[in-house]
């Protein structure tokens, strides 16, 4: 029986697309849902493209616990945060211990926490003169970017790299590694 993957997203869905593509012909796992918290986001187009169910997550049901029943209906073996920007509430972490996975666009514990996502991370990395950046895949707990680290990959930052160049290097790491890390956890 295939493992069931649920993806939570907040934006364009590029990581969701990559994960769906990777597992499309897999006999080990399948993406059964893409849930997004932003109406009109590209993640919904990704779901449609791959023939995956989708729905809009509203803030009240996500934080008051009603979301648990919705997500339980899909019987997820793994919940994957792919650019999902809301902090995961304690009830959801408790319901799915070591089954909620996040990817962060930096080498945690540096450049993590509330407000540290996307271009904000890359701008901070460049502003601080870092020589490398990368990705971190980690389990989710009740705090932003503090769960146990499972995987990191690094990219060298050249002295002339700006935030856009760092973003491109980090994005390449996400595409190359995130689906494989998910697969290895199954």
Provide keyphrases for this structure.
single chain; 186 residues; alpha/beta; Rossmann fold; 2 domains; 7-stranded mixed beta sheet; globular
Brief overview, please?
With about 190 residues, the protein is α/β, with parallel strands linked by helices. The protein is built from 7 helices and 7 strands.
Note the topology.
Blueprint: E1 3-9, H1 14-23, E2 29-36, H2 42-50, E3 53-56, H3 59-64, H4 66-72, E4 78-81, H5 90-95, E5 100-104, H6 118-127, E6 132-139, E7 149-156, H7 163-185
Principal-axes shape call: globular
Classify the fold: give the CATH topology of the largest domain.
Rossmann fold
* Strand segment count: 7
Structural class: alpha/beta
Distance between the termini: 12 Å
Main beta sheet strand tally, sense and closure:
7 strands, mixed
Q: Return the CATH class of the largest domain.
A: Alpha Beta
Beta-strand residue percentage: 15-25%
Structure description:
The chain is α/β, with parallel strands linked by helices. The protein has two domains: 1-97, Rossmann fold (3-Layer(aba) Sandwich), CATH 3.40.50.170; 104-178, Formyl transferase, N-terminal domain (Rossmann fold), CATH 3.40.50.170. It is 38% helix and 24% strand. Strands 3-2-1-4-5-6-7 form a seven-stranded mixed β-sheet, covered by helices on one side. It is globular, with a radius of gyration of 16 Å.
